[in-house]
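From the methods appendix. Each design record in this collection lists the tokenized structure first, followed by the designed amino acid sequence. Records were kept in a plain field format so they could be parsed without special tools. The example shown here is representative of the layout used throughout.

RECORD:
FOLD TOKENS (287 positions):
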């Protein structure tokens, strides 16, 4: 009987797996269609100078709203887009759209507000990446100094010397580079130093860790010490409480991003937000 039960659960498992695969194939098919049908769009989340409260940048984040109004989170469709290679064209579109928005910000008088763009490793490895990046910048008329590329730590480190060379070329064009989700990978310190990146983005998990009554934050503290020693600016992602912002600032973290300051916003809301928060007093938290 035990054998039978086992067989039954294996069959159920197999059915579960094939359903999951079918689901993914379906989603990928829909994603291709969505990309063609302009169902993808960007939202923008402010990045704040913790000392002054001023907005120094925004991160562009991809969204997919299907024809029937459902929102599919990037964590679900980006891995699919990566596995199928579709991320190369989607990523190029993201870059172009983000550069256009940054150029628009500059025209509105916010030339010093950076635009951070997530770049997938698949995209980065593509032999045409640098050419596409240059074209996106030239066509939009944005200053490359206004653009920052975010690359996740695991990826940046896994690729070794090739990444260092590529980073060098991107930096030579005038862009900034940030290492995303920092603290979750296994950076070698020497590699980190040679990469010459501009910013480390402390992963949300470690910010989450910073609770009330002075608890947690050990890893965030370590990363801040590291950034300080290497002369790399720090930005914390996922700040949800004033308390966390305060503790991070005390640890030497310069910048922050999170629901405490503002949620990611569609372009029109972001433009209005920026206009409202750039005059005088700066951003005051809460959203
Ligand atoms: P990420 O680059 O680490 O982006 C930060 C994520 O944290 C975003 O999730 C953002 O909405 C969320 N977040 C920001 N503040 C808070 C907060 O205070 N609390 C909480 N709980 N979450 C916060 P999102 O937009 O769902 O994106 C998830 C991931 O998808 C991103 O992580 C990034 O890895 C990827 N992604 C998003 N857009 C793109 C893109 O255009 N290209 C590529 N290659 N990846 C993207
Ligand atoms: Mg990011
Ligand atoms: Mg991140
Ligand atoms: Mg993250």
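DESIGN:
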């Amino acid at each position: 009987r035990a054998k039978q039960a086992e067989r039954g659960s294996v069959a159920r498992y197999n059915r579960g797996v094939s359903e999951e695969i079918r689901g993914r194939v379906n989603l990928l098919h829909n994603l291709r269609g969505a990309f063609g049908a302009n169902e993808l769009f960007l939202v923008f989340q402010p990045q704040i100078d913790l000392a002054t409260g001023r907005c120094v940048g925004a991160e562009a984040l991809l969204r997919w709203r299907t024809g029937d109004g459902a929102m599919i989170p990037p964590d679900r469709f980006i891995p699919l887009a990566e596995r199928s290679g579709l991320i190369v064209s989607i990523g190029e579109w993201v870059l172009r759209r983000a550069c256009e928005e940054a150029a628009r910000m500059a025209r509105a008088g916010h030339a010093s507000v950076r635009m951070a763009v997530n770049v997938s490793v698949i995209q980065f490895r593509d032999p045409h990446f640098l050419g596409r990046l240059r074209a996106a910048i030239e066509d939009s008329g944005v200053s490359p100094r206004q653009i920052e590329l975010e690359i996740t730590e695991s990826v940046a480190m896994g690729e070794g010397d090739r990444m260092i060379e590529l980073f060098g070329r991107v930096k030579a064009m005038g862009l900034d580079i940030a290492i995303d989700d920092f603290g979750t990978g296994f950076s070698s310190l020497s590699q980190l130093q040679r990469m010459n990146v501009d910013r480390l983005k402390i992963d949300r998990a470690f910010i989450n860790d910073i609770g009330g009554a002075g608890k947690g934050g050990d890893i965030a503290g370590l990363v801040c010490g590291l950034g300080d020693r290497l002369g790399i600016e720090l930005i914390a992602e996922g700040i949800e409480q004033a308390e966390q912002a305060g503790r991070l600032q005390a640890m030497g973290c310069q910048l922050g991003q999170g629901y405490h300051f503002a949620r990611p916003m569609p372009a029109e809301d972001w433009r209005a937000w920026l206009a409202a928060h750039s005059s005088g007093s700066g951003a005051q938290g809460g959203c």
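APPENDIX NOTE: Residues 181, 203-204, 237 surround magnesium ion (ligand 4) (CB under 6 Å).
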